[in-house]
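Bit of a strange request maybe. I'm writing a small parser for C-alpha cell strings and I need a real example to test against, not something I typed by hand. Could someone generate the C-alpha cells for this chain?
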Amino acid sequence: FESVRNYQRTHLPICPCIPGEMNAKYMRLTEQNLRQKRSQKFLKAYYAEAASEVGIVDSPSGLVLGARPNRHGVPSKKIQALMHAADNPAISSAFWKAYYSGKDKAIEM
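Reply from user aminoacidic:
Good idea to test on real output. This should exercise your parser:
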C-alpha cells in the first residue's frame, strides 16, 4: 500500500513516459479525490482487493503474481461493494463487520 502511494506521489507526476495532457488529467483527478478524503481503511482495503483483481497475491516471499486475474473489464462485486460503502457512511460499520467476518455478506449490501 505505502509503496504504491509513494510511487504515485513521486514518480507519476514527473514520469517522461506519460503524455502531458494525461498527467494533467491524473493530477486533477488526484486533487478531486483528496478533497473527498476517503478513509485510510477503505483505501487499504481497496488496494488489497484491486491487487487481487490483477492477480497479485501475498506470499511468504512478498507480493507475487500468482492468482487468476479478473479479465472481465468490470470490477468484482467485492470491489463494487467496497466503493459503495466508501460513498455511503450510513452502511460503513455494517460493511466492515461483514468484510472482516470473512464472509461475502459485504457484497450483498
